[in-house]
Amino acid sequence: MSRFLLHRLLQGLVSIVGASIVIFLISRLSGDPVQILLPSDATPEMIAETRRTLGLDLPLWHQYVIFAWDALRGDFGRSYRWQMPALRLILDRLPATILLAVCGLIFSVAVAVPVGVLSAVRPGGWTDRVGRIFAMLGQAMPAFWVGLLLILLFAVQLNWLPAFGYGGVSHIIMPAIALGWYPVAAQTRIVRSAMRDVLDSDYIRLSRALGTPERWIVWKYALRNAAVPLLTMLGVYFAAMLGGAFVVETIFAWPGVGRTVVEAVFSRDFPVVQAGVLFTSILFVLSNLLVDLTYGIVDPRIRDDR
Amino acid sequence: MLLQVDQLRMYLHLRRGVLRAVDGISLHVNEAETLGLVGESGSGKTMTGLAMLRLLPRDAGRIESGSIALDGRDLTTLTETEMVREIRGRRIAMIMQDPMTSLNPVFSVGDQVGAPLRYHDIARGAVLRSSVIDVLRRVRLPSPEQRLGDYPHQFSGGQRQRIVTAMAIGCTPRLLIADEPTTALDVTIQVQIIALLKRIQQDAGLGIVLITHDLGVAASLCHRIAVMYAGQIVETAPVRAIYRSPAHPYTQALLAAIPRLHATAKRLTAIPGQPPSLIDPPAGCRFAARCPHRMARCTEPPPMVDLGDGHSAACWKLAA
Amino acid sequence: MTVRRRIPLWLRGVPWLALLVLAVVGICAIGGDDILPADPNQLNLADAFRPPFWAANGSVDNPLGTDNLGRDILSRILAGSRISVIVAAYAIVFSGGIGALAGLVAGYFGGVVDAVLMRLIEIQQSIPSIALALIIAAALEPGLSTVIFVIVLTYWAWYARIIRGEVMTLKGRDYIAFARVAGVGTPTILMRHLLPNIFNTLIVLATLQVGQVILFEASLSFLGLGIQQPDISWGLMLADARQYITNAWWAITMPGIAIMLTCLSANVFGDWLRDRLDPRLRQL
What's this model's pTM, rounded to 2 decimal places? Predict the structure, then answer.
């Protein structure tokens, strides 16, 4: 692996460790967890005893080391609410979140690419103008509202799709749309601007001069070039999906990490919250790192420099 | 006659006015002959080349009048689909100036050279592969079989120009329009490319329109030369005649402006003044404002005077 | 052509509609309950679930309808703008202030200070903002201050990074070198020479942030981690309305439209300001 990638990996590691410290510190902000655990008539001895058992009488940095060490061995504590190891709870729900994030990404790309390409090929045309307006609106609409509107229209009024749950394709359509909605505007802009540049390039002009049909020029020879900036950003957008999943999962009762963490927050279930946020952050950092990896795969020029 | 262009006019309709890029061009090219289209930047020579393939800016460019006859067939009457399918890359091909940017960076060389063959239904599958290797060999690219999967950035500038040439001649076109094919290359590579074009011309009877501002390159490759100024052709002649006895004052000034190695001149001879605006060109001779031989008559458009032996020039001085 | 020339240059292309919406929001925020058409907290169970005035059962008394407790939705929406403005104001001032200061110091001094700042920014950016909000809300009491705290913690890095870049460009300029040679103290250089030059950028960043802050607060309140009853927030209204989504479509759509219009206006205005003051920020 090249030096650059190694450096980025190291950077990611530092970020994750830093994130874990932040997560740990914030959890400790909540005040005395002992109060939550014990009944209100507990004696001072019981409180002191519990404190010692939980290691809460140790200095803060020591507590962090224990936390980190445990975490590395997979022990995040036991969920108060669900009565099972927090890590297992999170890992069980992780695939559902990743599935949702991937589908959201597929939706946003599936909209952004055609709209971006058509916008670039026919500037000022119908697709361009409508596309721009929708993009502007889309960036002003919060994901949860999009989700609610979708439910209102497709589940309540039309009764075509189920309003919540986990099952077949029909269950993932609306959550994926609600999740993938927001980045469409930015992605369309990237595709449109990249296509405009590419369509102006010398090699496209040569293709045209040598009689390549326009359809092939746009969708094969130009798009493959214009896709490079978009593909390299996919990691960033996937990370954004992870962030948006928290809210979307809650609305659609999607059994993923996001919804679990939100529920855990209301139950003050710290082991789950810590595990959930930490894992999401790890995925987040990895996805952003993916950008540097994919760049090399997608652009043959960079491939050989590595 | 392979190509006959008659009074071609191509205007660009811009917001600020109508730009008369190609204003009444007449020229012809025979088989196995190279016609040089020479002129300074902005003279309209590239536009003429594009107009011949009807590759005009989509909304702005329009052929106003005139004809472009390839083997007798008038290209101005064809539909866009016919141009794409039958003419471009198939009967008339084009190569452009900068080999570093002429090739698509994310597609392999084999794919790009094979593309014209594929889209014009010349070859497919295994036959396509061998045809591509064949044409790469013809342009003298070393070990073509191994390099089909390589990408443009893995080749040098000279090699890339060969690859571009291979793309152009793959379907054995009748005419090749070469727009400044050597300008972006080293002098040593220039020589190689010129030799390549010469050889291809001899092998296939290819007609070539060589667009250039470099009179030296023109001299080494062209049989005849047409000099362009401000969207019009001012002089056409066999190559020797252009250099030995240029008739038009502009041609004379151009040749005089070439610095000579052995001369002891202290400054470069330039042609005073600027080319006229093509949006609002002067009514008469367009070179009159800068011409040392300007007469009163030059306010009227000069006739194309036939000086014999295929030499003609548009100048009032010669009309008398 | 003459008509265009009559509009002075600085007034040309101003997004009037966006400014109008923002002005309405601002007025409602400052005006207090008295300027509202109805009392936003007035319960009126008899009038519950009244649709907007153009629908079958609607009346002009409640132009956008009523919610499950009979409260006038239009008044609640206008009252909710108060929260949006307060959150935006505090969030921008604090995150902008802290971020700008950090960026200024890191950009100017470089070295260890800069390295530390960059690591902090990276750490902050490795936790998705909602997740950060969740964990903070789990630790503290949900409420207005929590929301502001979360937004500040999320956005300071954004400011810091951009301001740092600006400062690093500026500190190489001649007038900074002259000031140093002339013996001007570092705090003065920072305040008197660098700050005014990054001011434009700061303004643009602040206006661009407004839209995002509105969306963020709405999301938090919707989840129940932000503004709490009986305060009014658009996100909270949507959370309530969700329970009776089958009965009252207007309760779901109207507050959302308010969010969308305000955010859109802020974005449009921010883009316009950016194009006029500092177009280099376009790539954001």
Answer: 0.83
